[in-house]
Amino acid sequence: MGNFKIYTKTGDKGMTSLVDGTRVKKNSLRIESYGTVDELNAQLGLLASFVTDEATLKILSSIQNELFTLGCNLAMGDNPKRSLEESIVSDEVIKIIENEIDRLQAIVPQLRAFILPAGSHAASVAHVARTVCRRAERNIISLDEVSPVDTNLMAYINRLSDYLFVLSRYLNFIDKVEEKTWQKTCK
Predict the structure, then answer these.
(1) Alpha carbons 167 and 164: distance in angstroms, whole number
(2) Superfamily, domain 21-174
(3) Distance, C-alpha 24 to centroid of its chain
């Protein structure tokens, strides 16, 4: 890639550029949306560092790459000059996540109570990633209210949070860590 400076100084006053060249404030809904997707991606990288199951590592790697696609899509702006192929969220990637959810659900015990976000180190990190994913989804929905967002993108992020929930259960299961269930304490 060659040497290049990581700092440009163009964002020093709180503005950044979208893919279409539009300058926006760094706290805009669009930046918040893809910034949270980036945070989720980093959480998945952390999660992968605690996972030993090869099939799960492969899926996590695929998801991390897909999250770059989502970020690119969200960074396109309202009036992109051209649609970038790498920003398209396909039906196929949604189906891959659904298939993985089904595969893991067939392995873990049937859910009979609300579970607490806890367990093994890997499962706990998966729960944190799930909550970041839900925040990303809320940000994207808010963005969609003012600037239409691709419906496949919204479907993917919704399925991803479901996957991370089931993954946390699977990680506890393979690590032989008993899930903690919610114990109602209100009287």
Answers:
(1) 5
(2) Cobalamin adenosyltransferase-like (1.20.1200.10)
(3) 23
